[in-house]
Amino acid sequence: MKWIFILLVGIILVSGCLQFGPINGDPDYVIAKRECIKLCESILQATNENISHGPCLSDNVEGYVEDWVCDVAHSPRQPVDNLPENQCQEFREGRAKHFVEVDPDCNFIKAV
What is the pTM (predicted TM-score) of this model? Predict the structure, then answer.
């Protein structure tokens, strides 16, 4: 009986470590994350534009990965991040199912 309890506790602990959704090894996730960061950095270098208002950088991560958008947000989120005009239209309208968020300095926040 004791070994069943230990097994159950082990399963619960391991399941807490599982990540649902895209994982680091998923090729689309890896490419979308990399390309979003590169896109953000290239926009900052080319234009020196202030992107702290949280614009959508790309409604399709530069054609490399379908179903992914690249968006600027803050960590922690700020009200400006929730304004529809600052979010990617493809994601808002359900045509893209995944997004990568980077902060205004192009640091990765999250990908879903």
Answer: 0.72
